[in-house]
Amino acid sequence: MQTAGRNGEAAGLWRRIVAAAPASAEARFNLGATLLALEEFEAAEHALRESARLRPGAPWTRHRLGNLLQATGRWDEAEPHYRAALAEDASLWRARLDLAHLCLGRGDFGRGWPLFEARRSLGAAHIAPPPLPREWAGEPPAGASILVWPEQGFGDQIQFARFAPALAAAGADVTLVAPPELSALFATLGVRVVERAAEMTLPEPDAWTFLLSIPQRLGVDRDGLWPAPYLAPPADRIARWDGFAPQGAVGVVWQGRATPNTHRSLPSRELLQPLADAGATLVDLQPPPGRDFADLAAVMAQLDLVVTIDTAAAHLAGALGKPCWVLLPWFNADWRWGLGDSTPWYPATRVFRQTAHGDWAGVMAEVAAAWRARQGA
């Protein structure tokens, strides 16, 4: 039933099983997982805590309880459960990655980067090595030719693209491979960029590295982030989109592509109306104008502000140094925005968070008030 998405029926079944076998940690675990899928957070937490109490040494109970606590914003409570799960079973790569997200979200890069390498187990759809023999292990890069290989989504690549010029500044001859949607934009980084294709011919470098592994190899700490802005719209795209947006306009993105985290998107564009009522001239950035992120960057350059959900547009605005307000859900907000209203990754970005699950209206009321204050109204 759970695998078929019939979580309501499954929860009823698991409740009956728990009643018949109250000492079964497995039954309570499955009940908790089902209730979490139904977004019955309090009942799910109770079931998972009972599962962990019944089987305190079982890593799967501690890991899932940590997931719930992290997803509901209680990072300090989640961490010991991840550590307990890993103490019982060090092979739990997903718990290692979840713990990495907590550390990196807090700015504890020293502990976070090594744990973050667990993302290599995400699978070939997210991360897969190039057909090259030698991976860079962090030895001094000066004088070496290093090929930087892409991984994961557009937002991840935009966020971490700052480390390609950082690697070049350390003396490496850098070639950055980028998907077609990002290649023109990344050409403004000041390093050699090659567009990724199904069939590619590349000169064999001295070594290669995943893009998101560079900061771990360079030993980057919170104060050592390559500063924004580090991207810019190409000159030809600036000319192409000249005059697209009225002066002082606010670009808005209210939905992302389908992802496992469906809570990120606003249910409808109408929820942005309070911002328009506050006097903002809204320009839709959805779907993105043009054919790639270089086009979107040229449009963003004309805007006074970008207001967006957590999607690649938020990272692009941050990388451009464009003032950006990011709208985050209460449940399952991404690690890279931390827990506050700002992020060291993008100094010009401000974060607005739901204070209750699903309360986008409250977020937009806060955004409208912030706009009025910004205009001195």
According to CATH, the homologous superfamily of the largest domain is: Glycogen Phosphorylase B
**Strand residues, percent:** 5-15%
Q: What is the count of distinct domains?
A: 3
Low-confidence residue ranges:
none
Q: Which shape, going by the Cα principal axes? A: globular
CATH topology of the largest domain: Rossmann fold
Rg for CA atoms: 23 Å
The helix/strand class is: alpha/beta
Task: State the name of the first-level CATH class of the largest domain.
Answer: Alpha Beta
Helix content: 40-55%
Intertermini distance: 54 Å
The number of E-state strands comes to: 9
How many separate helices?
16
Which CATH architecture of the largest domain is right? 3-Layer(aba) Sandwich
Q: Give the integer mean of the pLDDT values.
A: 95
Element-by-element helix/strand order: HHHHHHHEHHEHEEHHEHEHEHEEH
Main sheet record: 5 strands, parallel
Order of strands side by side in the largest beta sheet? Answer: 6-5-7-8-9
Keywords:
5-stranded parallel beta sheet; 9 strands; Rossmann fold; Serine Threonine Protein Phosphatase 5, Tetratricopeptide repeat; 3 domains; 16 helices; 42% helix
Describe the structure.
This protein is an alpha/beta fold and 377 residues long. It has 3 domains: 7-122, Tetratricopeptide repeat domain (Serine Threonine Protein Phosphatase 5, Tetratricopeptide repeat), CATH 1.25.40.10; 145-224, 3-Layer(aba) Sandwich (Rossmann fold); 235-374, Glycogen Phosphorylase B (Rossmann fold, 3-Layer(aba) Sandwich). 42% of the residues lie in helices and 11% in strands. It has helices spanning 7-20, 25-37, 41-54, 59-71, 75-88, 93-106, 109-116, 154-160, 163-169, 180-186, 214-218, 235-240, 273-277, 293-300, 312-320, 360-374; strands spanning 145-149, 173-178, 192-195, 207-210, 250-253, 282-284, 305-309, 324-328, 349-353. The strands form 2 sheets. Strands 6-5-7-8-9 form a 5-stranded parallel β-sheet, with helices on both faces. A 4-stranded parallel β-sheet has the order 3-2-1-4. Helix 13 (273-277) links the parallel strand 5 (250-253) and strand 6 (282-284). The mean pLDDT is 95.
